[in-house]
Amino acid sequence: MQNFVYQNSTKLIFGRGAEGEAGRETAAVLRTLGAGPQGRILLHHSGGFAARSGLIDRIKGSLREAGVGWVELTGVKPNPRLSLVREGIALCRKEGLPFILAVGGGSAIDSAKAIAAGVPYGGDVWELYAKKAPVAEALPLAAVVTIPASGSESSTSSVITNEELAWKQGLSAECIRPVFAILNPELTYTLPPYQTACGVADMLAHVMERYFTREPQVELTDELCEGTMRTIVRNARQVLTTPGGAHDYDARAELMWAGTLAHNNLLGLGRVGDWASHHLEHELSAGYDIAHGAGMAIIFPAWLEYNIRADSSGGDGLPSGNTRPAQFAEKVWGLSLRRPDETAREGVLRLREFYRSIGLPVSFTDAGLPTDGIPGMARRFSRFGPDGKYRKLDAAAAEAVYRLAC
Amino acid sequence: MQNFVYQNSTKLIFGRGAEGEAGRETAAVLRTLGAGPQGRILLHHSGGFAARSGLIDRIKGSLREAGVGWVELTGVKPNPRLSLVREGIALCRKEGLPFILAVGGGSAIDSAKAIAAGVPYGGDVWELYAKKAPVAEALPLAAVVTIPASGSESSTSSVITNEELAWKQGLSAECIRPVFAILNPELTYTLPPYQTACGVADMLAHVMERYFTREPQVELTDELCEGTMRTIVRNARQVLTTPGGAHDYDARAELMWAGTLAHNNLLGLGRVGDWASHHLEHELSAGYDIAHGAGMAIIFPAWLEYNIRADSSGGDGLPSGNTRPAQFAEKVWGLSLRRPDETAREGVLRLREFYRSIGLPVSFTDAGLPTDGIPGMARRFSRFGPDGKYRKLDAAAAEAVYRLAC
Question: Is the pTM of this model over 0.90?
Answer without folding.
Answer: yes
